[in-house]
Write a structure and sequence with these properties.
29% of the residues lie in helices and 24% in strands. The protein has 344 residues and is of the alpha/beta class. Strands 3, 5, 6, 7, 8, 15 and 16 form a seven-stranded mixed sheet that branches.
Length: 344
């Protein structure tokens, strides 16, 4: 089968940073599904792994942690899916990724693809949706309501880096499933327009001091922070802005954080890593499959929209290199997607 992989961690402009390769089609056993990949999305984790994780000598590593496809065969322990089912998922960081014609994935972290979306529209959602959902409801403990019966709350959530993949779905989840107000940060006009379309109540510029901009809004103290980028740069501001017993959740990798500053306001900090369940075979691993099915329902009911941004065409090494360059620039809006493999 066709796949895109690498044998050494290299800068993206190196010819061998990502290569078109041919490898055998794997066989589904146990809880695994064998999925024929139809569309993928690219995330910052792809670039991080490429730059920091080399495969064993003589082998290739295949990236990709967002996929839509069709089940072609199932392992003997599979109970939730059958061949020809259309599925979407983020996968497992410990296993080969979705930048290949076929992929093995545990059924417990797989959901039924939203029927109202195209393959690329659906491929934009899994990783960032799981991340945003776990951040909001498992870590920040925001109360959920029925999207048809909205309830206003006094919660105010600051979303820093709101125009990216996680922020793009997180804003929607907050506005459709909670009563919280959203302050989104975005520095460029295009980013500001994007987060406004997604439902942000207020928009501020993260390239300027946060506190003065929020004070001018005159809406009260921030109760929750979703820190999606540069947490170390904004940490002092979070401590100043948050109300007592406020919560901070982050997804990035700051080199250091002085958590002692949280004590005087009794603040809490939470790290969200959506691969934690699959990497450690958590007892509740099937929660991610349930989550994806719930999100598919919300999409098909018209409550949530895709966060797909740029479509770069076929799944091949050249197009994936273009995606990695854009991801590494930190300026992408929404999700970068690709679809299909060239026929031989």
């Amino acid at each position: 089968m066709k796949a895109i992989g690498y044998s050494n961690s290299l800068p993206i402009h190196n010819a061998e940073s990502l290569m078109d390769i041919e490898i055998p089609i794997p066989v589904a056993t146990g809880h695994d599904l064998l999925v024929k990949i139809e569309a993928i999305a690219v995330n910052p984790v792809d670039s991080k792994i490429r730059l920091n994780v080399s495969p064993p000598k003589g082998q290739h590593k295949i990236l990709g942690w967002d996929a839509v496809g069709e089940v072609v065969s199932v392992g003997e322990l599979v109970t939730q899916f059958k061949p020809k089912d259309k599925v979407y998922y983020a996968g497992d960081l410990n296993r080969q990724g979705s930048n290949a014609e076929f992929q093995l994935v545990d059924e417990r972290i797989v959901g039924n693809k939203p029927t109202s979306l195209t393959n690329t529209e659906a491929a934009a959602l899994p990783l960032t949706t799981i991340t945003a959902w776990e951040l909001l409801f498992d870590h920040l403990k925001l109360a959920q309501h029925d999207p048809l019966v909205p309830q206003k709350s006094n919660d105010i959530i600051l979303v820093v880096g709101a125009a990216g993949g996680v922020g793009s779905i997180l804003i929607q989840l907050v506005k459709k499933l909670t009563g919280a107000s959203v302050i989104a940060t975005a520095s460029r006009k295009s980013s500001q327009s994007w987060v406004q379309q997604l439902g942000a109540d207020y928009i501020i510029d993260h390239s300027l001091p946060l506190a003065s901009q929020i004070e001018e809004l005159d809406i009260g103290q921030v109760t929750h922070v979703a820190s999606l980028t540069h947490t170390d740069e904004y940490m002092e501001s979070y401590v100043d802005l948050l109300a007592p017993f406020g919560k901070i959740a982050l997804i990035d990798d700051p080199k250091s954080l002085d958590v002692s500053k949280l004590k005087r306001k009794s603040l809490s900090i939470h790290w969200e890593f959506m691969f934690a369940r699959s990497m450690h075979n958590a007892i509740d691993m099937n929660e991610q499959g349930k989550l994806l099915n719930r999100v598919a329902e919300l999409v098909d009911q018209g409550h949530l929209r895709t966060t797909a941004g740029k479509n770069l065409g076929e799944i091949n090494a050249n197009n994936l290199k273009t995606a990695h360059v854009e991801i590494e620039s930190g300026t992408s809006i929404g999700k970068i997607v690709l679809e299909g493999f060239a026929t031989s």
